[in-house]
Amino acid sequence: MVVTAGVRDRARAAMLGFGVGDALGATTEFMTPVEIRHRYGVHRTLRGGGWLRLRPGQVTDDTGMLLALAEAVAESGRWDLEAIARGFVTWLRSRPVDVGATCARGIRRFLVEGTLQAPPGEWDAGNGGAMRAPAAGIASLSSPLAAGGRAVRQARITHNHPLSDAASAAVALMVRAAVLGLGFEAVDRVARALGRRHPAFRATGVRPVSSPYVADTLRTVLYFLRTTRSFEECLVGVVNQGGDADTAGAIAGSLGGGLGGTAAIPRPWLRRLDPQVRDRLEVAAENLIRLGG
Ligand code: MN
Ligand code: MN
Questions:
Q1: Residue 217 Cα to ligand 2 middle (Å)
Q2: Rounded distance between C-alpha atoms, residue 213 and residue 183, angstroms
Q3: Within 13 Å of residue 276, how many CA atoms lie on the same side as its CB?
Q4: Backbone φ, ψ for residue 149 (5° rounding)
Q5: Residues 6 or more apart from 105 whose CB is under 8 A from it?
Q6: CB within 5 A of ion ligand 2: which residues?
Q7: pTM value?
Q8: For the segment 139-186, what is each residue's pLDDT rounded down to a tens digit?
Q9: Separation of 247 CA from ligand 2 center, angstroms?
Q10: Measured in angstroms, how far is the CA atom of residue 116 from the centroid of ligand 1?
Q11: Which of 108, 134, 183, 193 could make an S-S bridge to 254, C-beta 3.0–4.6 Å?
Q12: Distance 88 CA to ligand 1 centre (A)
């Protein structure tokens, strides 16, 4: 396929938006909306802090694992699960600021047993697989089938649950549609299909709060994607709900960036994002496009 300048820009924005959403949401991770309002009014700057006591613009495990995955597949030149798992090991050994329990368990299992798929687990409907899925979407621009399959396979290194599978595939397909320039309708079509197959992802009418449960997180992302009119408004809405705010922020940022391109991301947020992370995300975007181009 021909990669236009627009596709390239939206892929960069899908990666940069992910990092920005992670850094923005990390401040309010695990807080309730009331606690956030009391403390910040409306939280809308990359101020750092949070339970991890981050520097302004610092990212967390979400961006760390996304980059580990993207850099592993770039180096091996294909969607190599073993290379991805080894990338996760290297990342875990780099002493990241945090790591999800299910992700840590999956990485340890790979180290001990060498297996590339977690056994099915009723507690594995967490966010870890879906949060890394944007990389599968950007790497599979020429094939929706590949996008979904790659998203599920990387997810299962740490998470093996039907809802994680479904969410991971959907996130990859949504990011892919956004980066290809197919617009919000195409993204929402993927989301509606997900809700038809798994009612847990359906909108309920109540303003959702993200949590370590992937259906809560995706419902929150989709609610604000559907009810806001800009990247900034969407992300501010998502992260001020608290809960798993950085993970929801990262996924929303990837979708919002993919839809609107780099111009949609507020300049002060991009400027504040850790410069080393920003560079790595931009390089990763270029390398991921090459995989499916
Ligand atoms: Mn995180
Ligand atoms: Mn999180």
A1: 10
A2: 27
A3: 3
A4: -65, -45
A5: 118, 158
A6: 244, 246-247
A7: 0.98
A8: 999 999 999 999 999 999 999 999 999 999 999 999 999 999 999 999
A9: 4
A10: 23
A11: 134
A12: 15
